[in-house]
Every structure is written in structure tokens, then in C-alpha cells.
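Hi support team,

I've been running sequence recovery on a batch of backbones for a student project. Most finish fine, but this one hangs at about 90% for roughly twenty minutes before it completes. I'm not sure whether the input is malformed or the queue is just slow. I've pasted the C-alpha cells below so you can try to reproduce it. Let me know if you need the job ID as well.

Thanks,
M.K.
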């Protein structure tokens, strides 16, 4: 039974390795995965208060969402302000741009402090989830 649970845990999407990437300036130009991203899945990830929890710090342009944060910049218009590559880097590891960033690194496992036990040794978001969030945020032009 225990072996079956371990195999099930290893098969879940949350179990993932950090995808290799190359930083160019202030961006990760190349997607982390070749599969097509889904803005709809990205929106669900952004709104999920159990995993990414973006709304604890950011506001999005959706009047149906309540209790959004204002610690981080509003995400309305982010697709006009940043390229997909710039958004990607900020999600993967914002400390690459600002060593004092308070936004968590969603696709990094090394050098982190106070990590939730659920994410020890694995990123909070998989490479596909990062791409889905990039697709959603890049659509927010106004």
C-alpha cells in the first residue's frame, strides 16, 4: 500500500523538476516546455489560493474575485508592460532581477528559506504551469 502511495505521489503534476533555462537580460525568452500553454489553465492557477496564491499580493482585473492583495503591483495591463519572457523570469525566480524581492520563486528549489514541506525539493509550479500562467498574464493588456 505504501509503495502505491509513493508511486501516486510521484505521478502527480506537482512532483516536478526545475526545467533548464537561459536568462537573457531581464527575461527568459524560451518557454520552459514545448507543449502549448493554456491561458484558461493559467487563470485558474493565478486564482488558486492553495498553490500559487498570487491574489494574496496582486489584484487582477476580475470583479468576481474578492480579497485581492496590494503588496505587489496590480496585474491588470501586465501584458502591455512586460513581454512573455519578462513575465516568465519574474515567475521562475524574481530574485534574478531583485535580490530583495519578496515574491516567491515559483520554479526554483535551491537557496530558499522557510519552504512549505509540500514543496521541499520541488518547485511550487511545474514548467507547464509556469507557461500557462505566462499565457494568461500576457493576455492582460488593459
Amino acid at each position: 500500500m505504501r509503495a502505491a502511495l509513493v508511486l501516486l505521489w510521484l505521478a502527480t503534476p506537482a512532483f516536478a523538476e526545475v526545467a533548464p533555462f537561459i536568462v537573457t537580460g531581464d527575461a527568459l525568452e524560451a518557454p520552459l516546455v514545448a507543449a502549448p500553454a493554456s491561458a484558461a489553465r493559467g487563470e485558474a492557477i493565478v486564482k488558486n489560493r492553495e498553490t500559487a496564491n498570487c491574489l494574496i499580493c496582486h489584484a487582477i482585473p476580475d470583479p468576481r474575485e474578492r480579497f485581492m492583495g496590494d503588496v505587489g503591483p496590480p496585474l491588470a495591463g501586465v501584458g502591455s508592460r512586460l513581454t512573455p519572457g519578462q513575465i516568465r523570469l519574474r515567475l521562475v525566480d524574481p530574485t534574478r532581477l531583485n535580490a530583495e524581492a519578496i515574491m516567491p520563486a515559483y520554479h526554483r528549489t535551491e537557496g530558499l528559506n522557510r519552504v512549505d514541506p509540500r514543496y521541499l525539493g520541488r518547485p511550487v509550479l511545474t514548467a507547464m504551469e509556469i507557461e500557462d500562467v505566462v499565457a494568461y498574464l500576457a493576455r492582460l493588456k488593459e
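--
Follow-up from support: It reproduced on our side and the slowdown came from queue contention, not your input. Residues 1-14 have pLDDT under 50 and may be disordered. No action needed from you.
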